[in-house]
């Protein structure tokens, strides 16, 4: 009996890819010149799709696969997988409802400490043999500083829990004040930025948050302020951020996400006062293993005619 055909939209955790290639005939979309044309012209027998929370899967993609039965998301897929379109076409959708908030918050704190204490700059200084010539100029401590959190959801709350023991105070901005939250609320983002020594971006990407952190907000943060973004790249106006870092209108930034991943502008890569990591907020072995188990189990259950383990939507 031939293996079911599936589409894999991008490279994921290697053990998961190996399991998929063992059990299915896999169309690897990232290897073809025109993914949309490939879906329309070469995937008539595809019964399953594996995608990621960042990549998602659109209505147009769903409608281009006449035999599609299941979309398995390696991640949450909230807002990126068109669940409504899938339901209309009788397509089962699954995701991996793991809790990424603690892992993302850990990274956010690491980025903040790294950029404020200038850890990577200090590392490069030692490796270049400059310590023998002169002492390294100091960074800034976290104690006594104010951390403004843009979006006090699960990740924002986990960040707040982590930074308070460092002696930082917390305030936040969002579309509305949270009931039962003791942190000071700012309805105006610019006012929050002016009150903060560092700004943590943790809100979801929506039309109203695209470009939310612009030149005006960066200028309000000021030349002693730091920005950390562990949400989505387009929430920050990237050219405005580059200009602010170049001109030292803010002190530094720690970035896990970018406007056009995996492309990171050369101007950003050349700056010393920014820490850059390749979207690893949820990138722990523990989370990857959990997602691996869920994706593989969901597909196996579906193609065996059994209920999926983690239905989505």
Summarize the structure.
The protein is an alpha/beta fold and 313 residues long.
Polypeptide structure, described:
The chain is of the alpha/beta class and 313 residues long. It folds into two domains: 5-98 and 286-303, NAD(P)-binding Rossmann-like Domain (Rossmann fold, 3-Layer(aba) Sandwich); 101-276, NAD(P)-binding Rossmann-like Domain (Rossmann fold, 3-Layer(aba) Sandwich), CATH 3.40.50. Helix content is 35%, strand content 16%. It contains twelve helices and twelve strands. It has helices at 14-23, 35-42, 59-63, 83-88, 101-116, 119-127, 154-163, 189-195, 215-221, 238-246, 266-269, 285-303; strands spanning 5-8, 25-28, 46-52, 70-74, 92-94, 146-150, 169-173, 184-186, 198-201, 226-229, 252-255, 274-276. A seven-stranded parallel beta sheet has the order 8-7-6-9-10-11-12. Strand 4 (70-74), helix 4 and strand 5 (92-94) form a beta-alpha-beta unit. Helix 1 packs parallel to helix 12, helix 5 packs across helix 7 (154-163) and helix 8 packs parallel to helix 9 (215-221). The longest helix is centred in the last third of the chain and has 19 residues, at 285-303. It is elongated, with a radius of gyration of 22 Å. The mean pLDDT is 96.
